[in-house]
Write a structure and sequence with these properties.
- By secondary structure, the protein is α/β, with parallel strands linked by helices.
- It is built from eight helices and 36 strands.
- The strands form seven sheets. It has a nine-stranded mixed β-sheet with strand order 34-33-36-31-30-29-1-32-35, with helices on one face. Strands 2-17-20-21-22-23-24-25 form an eight-stranded parallel β-barrel, surrounded by four helices.
- Strand 24 (442-449), helix 7 and strand 25 form a beta-alpha-beta unit.
- Helix 3 (320-338) packs across helix 4 and helix 7 runs parallel beside helix 8.
- The protein is globular and about 85 Å long.
- The relative contact order is 0.14.
Length: 627
Amino acid sequence: MGLATIQVFPEKVRFPLNEEMYGVFYEEINHAGDGGLYAELIRNRSFMDARLPEGTAWYKGKACTALGHSENHDLSDDLPGWHVRMTGAARAQITGSTDAPRNPTVPNQLYLIAEGTSEGSVALLNDGYWGISVEPGEYRLTVIVRGNVPSLRVSLEMQYGGEAGCVQIDGVTSVFTKFEVLFAVTKKANGCRLAINPLSDGELWFDFVSLFPVDTFCERKNGMNRRIAEKIKALRPGFLRFPGGCIVEGISLENAFQFEKTLGPVEDRPGCWDLWGYRRTDGIGYHEYLEFCEDLGASGMYVINCGMSCQWRESEHGTPEQIDAFLQSAISAIDYAIASPEENEWGALRAKNGHPAPFPLKYIEIGNENWGAQYIERYNQFYRVLKKKYPQLIYIINDIGRYPDIRPEGYDLFDEHFYVTPQRFPAMAHRYDTYPRNGKKIYVGEYAANQEVGIGNMAAACAEASFMINMERNGDVVKMASYAPLLCHMRDRRWPVNLICYEDGNIFGIPSYHVQKLFSEVRPRVIVQSNCNVSSFTGETKVDTVSGLDENGDLIVKISNFSKGETTVCITAEGFVPASLIGISADSPETENSIDDPENVCAVELPPTASFNMRPYGVYVLRMEAE
């Protein structure tokens, strides 16, 4: 057993901790949005999912860019997510169509021909994202359709028989018409499917089919899944970084994120192939990102493309004309977020879209995981223009130091990323201790112990706590941090470890979630001096700690015990007595949370004491009050 003696000096204030220290990083990966945070329940609602990635050509199951990067792409089904059921003497067929589109920007349609409907049943079916989960309440069905079948019956079929709700649509004509109806769901059910029954023989062209709960987060009509969004809000994020990640860059510049295409009515958004193996709807568009910042009480961090596609995927470097176009797009996006409606066309568009006041956009990151001389040249071009036009914003750079002949003209924060084994973070416990206090300031934009930890276990959570303690202890250098990735549908886990997971209407946070939540909830206002002395017979004991004072003057002591044995900790702070103690631990470092046991590892209140035994791979936060 080890012994850790911690001496805290509350009167020796070192520096204030950034109020926005911890934020969240959102990217559409693992069906984070479509099928997750975004409340839409229908998969492939615009029938665009089979389209090739932008800027590619297809051959033998692969889509290939001009520079030779290829991705698997299945074209065997031109209507993913949709199928047809026939019973009795009924006959039906569905095919994809782009004939006479309602909107040429979103040309894909589903064509259905049905016969014998009076002698049987034809149902156009959609299973959603691996099943549709509903709760009692109102749901909004939107259908854009034309044809010669005047009436449709729409229902939610439950997995083991029966219906959770139904509604009828009347008045279908030969002209595309948008129907929006509310209907009541009377039962809680998982694994449902949407069924559309034509009530007579004929032909139908579906342009758009959508199903939304009315009860979204903050009651936004095109809003977020309430339960997942509340799980994110519980992290109390100081900022939201969006829209990525690699999707900012795309596999080609044509495939890069373009904020302009994500504005306006959702049925008119073409979406984009997502780079993570599926096409996103862009239902969570630029406007919705900014609304979500507001609803979370978080500042916005927008990551912009500086004319380079993903450098991990045979990067395409833009021409001067393309770079200028990306720069103008960045200016337009910033104007949309913060410009006056009276003086700027993009500010006026924001007001037209229902938000006359500026959004809380505060940070601009130029590029995503970019490097090299060409990146620095582009960064300087963007920084020079944007800093002059928007001096109030905070600018973040990806790469400095490796190219001495090409230096950045200026920046506020430098973005570092770490995806490592658990033991790496405790070994990095003093990474920032020797950084010049008046030198570069750090934003740790992506980090996780995501190797050799299953879907995320207690050892990973403790290792990250050690790193977070390191960041707080050097909060005059490390100003901000965001764990990544944030979200994962368990039926499409593209990334090994993700903070919040869900499936069939069930949600859980991995052990790391509970550490992130605890560290954000119990956050010092200022960091104070503390010393930690550790002794053990084997020398294996690894304890990290940081102390600070919160806004009430209470003393906060955070401790991680990345050790295979118990460790006794003794804390002394003159003039302070224990008030509360919270611990996160498990019987084994391999312990995980799951759908079936969502809080197998979670924060637990313990008897408040300044001397206690820390469990192996345990994380603890002690709050002390003045005597």
